[in-house]
Structure formats: structure tokens, C-alpha cells
Amino acid sequence: MSAQRSQETRVPSAPAAPAADGRGVLVVVPTYDERENLPGIVARVLDTVPAVRLLVVDDGSPDGTGELADGLAARDDRVTVLHHRPKRGLGAAYVDAFAHVMATHPADDVGWIVQMDADGSHAPEDLPAMLAAARDDGADLVLGSRYVPGGRVVNWPWYRNALSRSANVYSRRALRLPVRDVTGGFRLFRREALEAVTASPVSSQGYCFQVDLAFRVQRAGYAVREVPIVFTERCAGASKMSGAVVREALWRVTVWGVRDRLTRRPRTHDDPATGR
Ligand SMILES: Nc1nc2c(ncn2[C@@H]2O[C@H](COP(=O)(O)OP(=O)(O)OP(=O)(O)O)[C@@H](O)[C@H]2O)c(=O)[nH]1
Ligand SMILES: [Mg+2]
Questions:
Q1: Residue to probe by mutation, ligand 1, list 233, 240, 242, most atoms within 8 Å of CB
Q2: CATH topology of domain 13-262
Q3: What is the Cα–Cα distance from 24 to 192, expressed in whole angstroms?
Q4: How many angstroms is it from 32 CA to the middle of ligand 2?
Q5: Between vectors from CA 70 to CA 233 and to CA 89, what angle results, nearest 5°?
Q6: Confidence label for 271 from pLDDT (cuts 50, 70 and 90)
Q7: Can you tell me which atom of ligand 1 is nearest the CA of 233?
Q8: Where are the alpha helices (DSSP H) in the chain?
């Protein structure tokens, strides 16, 4: 093969680490009825990491969030919108958005992908610490964690705290995962790891989508790190949390845990606090 041909067919590779200003990073923000929250969150992301790209994934929000996002995209070319229909839950919106990102951005353009809620619970100001964890610790997946030292939850009623804590304890034990916050939705993925774990179909929809992806990344042998975040209950709009979401998580995690034990994988001895 000639030198020129090998040059042409070379697959572009992702940078080894994300830049502090967000170059090479794309933030995916799923929205459903987040009209009041979206403009503020987009502005804060772009202020914090000015070289970042941001993709809003809207499932035809009745409150007009999709059109509002189009307006933000028209004013700032760092912002794009994926109008995703029909609404099939958060998991489907993320999976289709990830596929869209991979198809529209080569690896040397976007090597790192963030997932983040639009409701203000995830503070964009925590992004630099998450990027630094990937840069300095060589993480493939950085979990924004409420349950490591320095992390916390603000303004949740006791029953939401209890639900989240129990879901984490159950998921960690059932799946033998060495991380403290496996249900959180504020994360940074190395593109290669995300591509690898979404190559097989992902059918989990609600909260358990987060558990599903973290489990896949950890079992595939990628490096997972946790960085403390302050999670704040949304100020505006309604939560999409429901009994169905909890039931889905419970049965799916139980099935995965049983299947994992039947395959007789040795228990990991990693330090739960750091994921190392
Ligand atoms: N595109 C899309 N976004 C969704 C869907 N469901 C939820 N979202 C968005 O996903 C993010 C998380 O949803 P929330 O309603 O905050 O649910 P949650 O964070 O799991 O629950 P809370 O802790 O009560 O806030 C928000 O930005 C929602 O607008 C969906 O079906 N499609
Ligand atoms: Mg929320």
C-alpha cells in the first residue's frame, strides 16, 4: 500500500485527553418540557467550557423546548438540536443521540462525550473537574458522584434521598460495581468506550439506563473514576421520575445481577471510593 493511500484510509483517532476549555468535547442534553431551564443551563455550559459543543435532544416537548433550542442554535453555532421522535424514554433519546454524534463528528473532532440533565440538577461548573479526571487520571468514564466525599444533594425531600440511596446500594451489590453513584446522569465518556458499550443494543429506558451503561463500561475493563458533584433539585418544571421507572430499574438490575453471577466472573477487589 502506498504511503499516500495509507494516509487517506487512516481512521482519525480521538485526542488522548479532553482539553480544559472543552475542545474535543460534546455535551448531550436531553430535554422534555424544560423550557424554563434550558437557556440558563446552555449559557452556563458555554461560559464554563467555551470551546465545547452542545447537542440538545428534544422528544417533541409540548411546551416548545425544541423550538426554543432551535433559537439557541441559530444564535450560537456551538449548539445543535436533534429533534427525536417518537418519545421512547431517556435511554432511547441518549442512544440515538450518541449514534448521531458518532455519525456526524469524526473522532479527532469529538473524542469525549458528556451526558447532562437540562433541569439544573447538574452544575456545568463541575465540568472542569470531570475533564481533569479524564486528563490526569486517564479515566475512560468519569461519573459525577453525589456519594463520594465532597459530593452531596441539595433540596431533595427525604423520600427522594432514600430512593436514590437504596437504588445505589442495590445496584452496586447486585452488579458488584466498585462505584458509589451508579444511578447519576452526569458523566463524561471517552468516545471509544461509549462506542464499544453501545455497539450491542441498549433497551433500558429510565434511570436504569445509567446503571446499564456504567455496568457495561466497567465490565468491558475501562477505567471508571468518580468526581464529587453537588446535585441540586430542579427549581422549575416537573420530574419525569415515576413508579414505572423504578420498577424497570429493579427488574432489569436483578436480571443482570443473576446473569452476571451465573457467568461466574470473579468478584472485583477495587476500592469502592475511587473506582480504582
Ligand atoms: N429527550 C428526552 N429527554 C428526557 C426524557 N425524559 C426525561 N428527559 C430529560 O432528561 C433529564 C432528566 O429528567 P428528569 O425529569 O430531571 O428526571 P430525573 O433527573 O431522573 O428525576 P429527578 O431527579 O426527579 O429530576 C431532563 O433534562 C429531562 O428533560 C425523554 O423521554 N426524552
Ligand atoms: Mg432531574
A1: 240
A2: Spore Coat Polysaccharide Biosynthesis Protein SpsA; Chain A (3.90.550)
A3: 13
A4: 11
A5: 50
A6: very low
A7: 25
A8: 3-9, 38-48, 65-75, 90-104, 127-137, 158-175, 191-197, 208-219, 243-262
Compute the distance from residue 249 Cα to the ligand 1 centre, in Å.
15
Compute the distance between CA of residue 154 and CA of residue 275 in angstroms, rounded to an integer: 24
pTM for this predicted structure:
0.89
* Ligand 1 atom index nearest CA of 239: 15
Give the HSE-up count for residue 173: Cα atoms under 13 Å, Cβ half-sphere: 6
For residue 33, the ligand 1 atom closest to its alpha carbon is 29
Ligand nearest to the CA of 239: 1
Between the CA of 128 and the centroid of ligand 2 the distance, in Å, is: 21
pLDDT in tens, 206-243: 778 999 999 999 999 999 999 999 999 988 887 777 88
**Per-residue pLDDT reduced to its tens digit, 158-176:** 999 999 999 999 999 999 9
